[in-house]
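Hi D.,

Good news: the full-assembly prediction came through. Inputs first.
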Amino acid sequence: MNVPFDREALAGIARELDVDVRRASIRDMDRLVNAVEERLGVRYIRMEFGIPGLPTPEVAIEAETRALRERKLGHIYAPFAGVPALKQEISRFARLFMGVDIPADCCIPTVGAMQGCFASIALASRMRDDARTVLFLEPGFPVNKRQVKLLGIESDSIDFYDHRGPALIEAIERRAQQGDLCAIIWSSPNNPCWIVLNEEELAGIGRICDEHGLLAIEDLAYFGMDTRQNYFVPGEPPYQPTVLRHTRRGISIISSSKIFSYAGQRIAMAILSPELWDTDAPDLEGYCGTEKIGRAFVPGLLYPLTACCPESPQYGLMAILQAANSGDRSLFEPAFEYSRRAREMKRLFLENGFRLVYDNDLGEPLADGFYFTIAHPAYDDGADLIAELLHYGISAITLETTGSVRREGLRACVSLTGQELFPLLEERLRRFAAAHS
Amino acid sequence: MNVPFDREALAGIARELDVDVRRASIRDMDRLVNAVEERLGVRYIRMEFGIPGLPTPEVAIEAETRALRERKLGHIYAPFAGVPALKQEISRFARLFMGVDIPADCCIPTVGAMQGCFASIALASRMRDDARTVLFLEPGFPVNKRQVKLLGIESDSIDFYDHRGPALIEAIERRAQQGDLCAIIWSSPNNPCWIVLNEEELAGIGRICDEHGLLAIEDLAYFGMDTRQNYFVPGEPPYQPTVLRHTRRGISIISSSKIFSYAGQRIAMAILSPELWDTDAPDLEGYCGTEKIGRAFVPGLLYPLTACCPESPQYGLMAILQAANSGDRSLFEPAFEYSRRAREMKRLFLENGFRLVYDNDLGEPLADGFYFTIAHPAYDDGADLIAELLHYGISAITLETTGSVRREGLRACVSLTGQELFPLLEERLRRFAAAHS
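Then the structure:
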């Protein structure tokens, strides 16, 4: 079926599913596009959902099945703080690829980065009863905001669009001086605008967290995916930039969903500043049974959430990290594949009348990676733009839902668009351009 | 090494680990006994921890490994509300073994019963801002109380020791009339005292929850393990007693850790009253994005906690349920094994001067199962009793830590004590009896 798709039919399906296209979350957009594809027999260029599009490394699947069969896992709870050998391997990974020395005790597997973020935000919000506002550096992962709402705490935001470098640090410092913050949380490489915080910015954030008693919660969901750099030679710089180098109050959450294509088994890493182990928070004891911030993380947070992490995925992640730590670069191949896709897809959008919203990284060109942000001169409002693009068989979400101050744009994810779909994307963008020139 | 073990050595290890034997949680007791076993080269009769002592059914391990290999799971997120075929099988299980008709949409896998309980308590506490007290029917699982603390809400309790039958319902109704409750939570068969709420009691609780707008949260961690009954003929009564038969506001949490010996991969079931789907709660929307209680459970609670359940364990649980639903009774064998152990172990304790604390079930003899409760006439305080028993190579936790009003007793778990250890248990109890007659 040629684009544009039938407008009546699309509107009818959206009505039936009770999806407001203009405000749709990732999940709602996903549900809508699934239904349209099925009912109309069409195929979308799907850019709404950050689903890894590459298979899980065989080494992980092999390790999981071997652990289930040979170690006879299953009936006994896994160690609550994680399988000790995995903790060691995470510690090695931190040293070899992030350039930080973190003891294995502070390297803790979680049930996906989602759990790591939830536990970190919950921890921060229980440190001081009079400081319960989380500062988001925006845009970011929409569900972190949902976590804050679920916890019944407050949030505020500062946008990267007009705050980078010294301006970012000044704005954060000014906000911290109000005294009600408990944490700063951000994603870098950034979902969705793909800027990468540099060492000076991380040092500034780290210093402010130390001085004001905040947690620095770093979402490294796209670890290593700034392909302008080569982060993948173990033990040699450059290292993945991390706030752990710059603060005594940091938690770095590393998803294995994207860089290792391992979303479905829900296994991630939380790496805590060792100094947190003996750092007191006055009100924490009543919530978590200890006033030491680091010590609260496992028994006070992760344990009451899910007891432990499922055990076989811990062996899967361990096998991946062992291979990567030993120099097997194939584990990081997804970074390069997504980078190739982003370069080409951005070109197609730009050639057909679109522009990037977040269009530079401290004056340098952006890296090519998992996401980019687009707008079109004919549309002031991203909600109108996505409503129109849906008729051209292209899905995405609005920047507004990611927390951005920019209302005109969309977040586009490259993960599900392999090279074989580029001709289709190009044809649809040309038709869109012809109709909106 | 003969009992009693060296008192100085034990005290030294407890001091070094900073464990107060008299107040030790399950995890702390576990840590202490591990250390004593290692340092002194001794072996305990370990009754502190409800670790399933039997292997995970082969059908589950086989299904997990097949799903990982053949379905190529791993890189894509599992469906957020659970794998559809698993949801169907849970619905069938509810019909065949609980005698309730629940649509698959209301049958939701969780990352262990721990997550199911946390999400249910969180949901209840977000329904009305002026009703944030959870009523615990005690004793119970200590970590549920920790979950309430983490959420920053209140709790109150009513003890089964002096409240069963009409007295229980009257006490709950009186408490509900204060207007600040959001949920009632209990475990049946009960951890630790192994009483089982009957249909009249469940009907009373269900009615109160409906009339006062509370959630009824039923922890069925020991599903089917009241071996006085035969619950295991699919589709034929008697059925596992459940509050779902008696309320429009129930959530039944069924662990697969104990009855299916499947703790390590963290996969449980939450079964919601279908009427919750369209039941409004005035303040829920701000926390969970919808005011419909049932609809909030997946997108508003489970999703921001861990995104989805790991996928391969969902196939493992599905295989177990398929077999059980088709009449394979071997899946329920752990109930009978734990029952045999409990019968024998209770006898050994009773013959050596101990008595049961919770010693009857509405005037009938207690079932034999995963836990029982003990006290000794020489000790008024369970903390003193456990401190002494530790020198005789027997570990347990105090009833006090389970929320019981009874201060004199201990909770004893049978799961790790196979028949081959009975002679050792008997010898140690005899020595204890000789020293404390």
